[in-house]
Amino acid sequence: MLKQTVLIALLIFLSSPAWALTQWCEDANNKACWNMEEGSGTTTADISSNSEDCTFQASTEDPSWNTSNTAEDAPGFTGTSTASIAFDGSDYMQCTTMDLSGWTGLTTVSWIYWNDSGTDEHTILSNEDGGNDTAGILYRVEPGGNWLESFITLEANTATGGNFTDQTLTSDTWHHAALLYDQVALQSFLDGVVSTTTFAATSALDSDAETARQMVIGARGSGTDDFTGDIDETAIFDVALTSTDINDMMDNGLVQVAAAVTATTLHNATLHNATIH
To answer: Domain 23-256: which CATH class?
Structure first.
């Protein structure tokens, strides 16, 4: 009887809606998902099915793992993060080739801990090398105003973007930065709040033949404008997600359990089934 009781309680525990796994990295529209949990080595794996793994690159010294300052230290973050990647302004992560051509929407998310140093831009994520000949993303911190800035390349070798001047970052503080394009406008979210500045556009991302470039974390696609600080929990989607989705990833992480089943719940389930023979 005891074995049967425990088994029934366990089944209730596993089938409970509170045990539902929210896995943004397995979303059908996810194109890359780096939760940066390795904590050692020179590679961070794309934990989606797209194999967009990234390796450390540098002109002098590789990025390093930081296990004492992660997204878990951000106010309001309820997910789990045991490591982030620290950049010193002369290094970056180079990932595999990603073709953005023809995408009708775009969302990127990252936790960033930006250090205000130097006068160059600090790139969060990019596959853009300075020209409009390929579909490109460029998302960075502009130190002139400590605000977020982005440009994306669209069809017919056109681009849209600029400074989100109402989104001011505080140095040495965790911020959640998200970029969204929906064929209406390019928008930026800082700590879950959408910018009042938008850049109108209606095209899909560039659909020219030569559109695939390597994605880079912590620098432009050409390896310049390197980031200084820490980056964690980064992902790319080929659709415009909702503000609710962005806030969910910000609050709960890319990989999450919606709500933990408590010991009390399991105990009550056991008592409820204790009379079953």
So the answer is: mainly beta
